[in-house]
């Protein structure tokens, strides 16, 4: 099946690109001895877990359900971090996850006796903001609930604690990791030699062209050698970066006050919420910036939300009703975050193999919409 024969809207994961990302991540593991986990919050297309498992050490989860998915569909190491665990879920989490990271000493005290076979870690907050413009994604922002600050860290109460975890980056390069590591060493240095592992979190844009791989490897080797820790990275984006598309069809063209809007069968609010949350303008194949090409349109959806606008794009030729458009980099933070607001159908999920052949993995219908309501 070609991409043109797929139903719309449809997420299509490009297995060739996914494999190339995984190969790059594998070189980081091989060259440094670190272990890389898939952060399932970014990409949970478990049909691809057998492929991912050939390259990565396992998964990390943010909840019981993600932990179950990782353990049952991928295998390998299963890690988890949550700001707080629910009492009724904890024993299953402890049975599934070999590594459990706590967000406070109160959570550690509450649950440490219920982790008979898991390695326990604490999330630290190095209070080192390196993100210029995404406060919403900055776990080091003032007042953050994520991680124990050095001022509150109980250096004398680490019995049984084997690891430290920090996550402070978002789509960043290795120079920001280096700055963060320095802050971690300055603030939490006395605890580091007592640890078996150090998890550097996600947000490392390792598979982005131009990413500073040598510096990443230097950082990993440095902490590995200085403190004798097993280093973990848990990227989400880097695993499936630029490895997926969202194909949509133009349903109508409307004009108002000089702005011509394409009504699509996809939606920013429903199918790519990060476009509104972050916000950003997703890449669209064969298009330009507004005014760059002859025909400029605003791309929007069928929802009632006036601001459900994906962005303004230009094209060489006028766009017609029935045309298909292809948004790029749509594997990550897309299908894991989508919803059926307004009863808009969920996109189908397809995979494209290395020859460009597509197969539909799953389609969704009225029952999927209805089953989440009562
Ligand atoms: C604790 C933790 N680990 C890993 C990740 C994955 O980050 P990314 O997808 O940016 O690599 C996140 C993202 O929010 C996170 O909060």
Structural class: alpha/beta
Helix content: 25-40%
Work out the helix count: 11
How many strand units?
17
Query: Per the principal axes of the C-alpha atoms, what is the gross shape?
Result: globular
Q: Gap between N and C termini, in Å?
A: 37 Å
**Helix/strand order, N-terminal first:** EHEHEHEHEHEEEHEHEHEEHHEEEEEH
Reported for the largest beta sheet, the result is:
8 strands, mixed
Mean pLDDT reading: 97
Strand content: 15-25%
Spans of at least 5 consecutive residues whose pLDDT stays below 50 are none
**What is the C-alpha radius of gyration, as a whole number of Å?**
22 Å
**Which molecules are bound besides the chains?**
pyridoxal-5'-phosphate
List the helices and strands and how they pair.
Elements: E1 10-14, H1 15-32, E2 35-39, H2 49-53, E3 58-61, H3 64-74, E4 77-81, H4 87-96, E5 99-102, H5 105-111, E6 119-125, E7 148-149, E8 161-165, H6 174-188, E9 197-199, H7 213-227, E10 230-233, H8 237-240, E11 244-256, E12 259-264, H9 268-271, H10 274-277, E13 295-300, E14 309-315, E15 324-328, E16 348-352, E17 358-362, H11 366-370
Parallel strand pairs: 1-16, 2-3, 2-10, 3-4, 4-5, 5-6, 6-7, 6-8, 8-9, 9-10, 12-13
Antiparallel strand pairs: 1-11, 11-12, 11-15, 13-14, 16-17
The site of pyridoxal-5'-phosphate has 14 residues, from helix 8.
């Amino acid at each position: 099946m070609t991409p043109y024969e797929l139903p719309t809207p449809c997420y299509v994961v490009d297995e060739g690109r996914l494999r190339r990302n995984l190969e790059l991540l594998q070189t980081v593991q091989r060259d440094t001895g670190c272990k890389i986990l898939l952060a399932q919050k970014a990409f949970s297309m478990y049909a691809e877990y057998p492929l991912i498992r050939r390259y990565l050490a396992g998964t990390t989860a943010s909840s019981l359900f993600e932990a179950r998915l990782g353990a049952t569909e991928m295998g390998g190491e299963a890690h988890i971090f949550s700001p707080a665990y629910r009492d009724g879920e904890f024993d299953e989490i402890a049975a599934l996850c070999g590594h459990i990271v706590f967000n406070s000493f109160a959570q550690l005290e509450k649950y440490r006796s219920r982790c008979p076979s898991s390695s326990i870690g604490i999330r630290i907050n190095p209070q080192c903001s390196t993100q210029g413009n995404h406060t919403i994604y900055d776990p080091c922002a003032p007042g953050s609930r994520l991680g124990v600050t050095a001022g509150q860290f109980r250096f004398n109460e680490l019995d049984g604690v084997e690891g430290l975890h920090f996550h402070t980056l978002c789509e960043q390069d290795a120079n920001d990791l280096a700055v963060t590591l320095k802050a971690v060493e300055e603030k939490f240095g006395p605890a580091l030699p007592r640890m078996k592992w150090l998890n550097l979190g996600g947000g490392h844009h390792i598979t982005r062209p131009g990413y500073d791989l040598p510096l990443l490897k230097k950082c990993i080797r440095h902490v590995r050698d200085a403190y004798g820790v097993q280093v973990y990275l848990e990227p989400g984006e880097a695993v499936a970066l630029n490895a997926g598309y969202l194909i949509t069809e133009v349903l109508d063209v409307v004009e108002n006050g000089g702005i011509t809007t394409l009504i699509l069968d996809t939606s920013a609010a429903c199918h790519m919420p990060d476009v509104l949350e972050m916000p950003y303008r997703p890449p669209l194949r064969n298009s330009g910036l507004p005014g760059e090409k002859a025909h400029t349109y605003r791309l929007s959806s069928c929802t009632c939300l006036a601001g459900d606008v994906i962005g303004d794009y230009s094209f060489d030729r006028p766009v017609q009703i029935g045309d298909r458009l292809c948004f790029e980099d749509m594997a990550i933070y897309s299908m894991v975050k989508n919803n059926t607001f307004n009863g808009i159908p969920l996109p189908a999920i397809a995979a494209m193999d290395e020859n460009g052949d597509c197969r539909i993995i799953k389609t969704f219908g009225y029952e999927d919409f209805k089953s989440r309501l009562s």
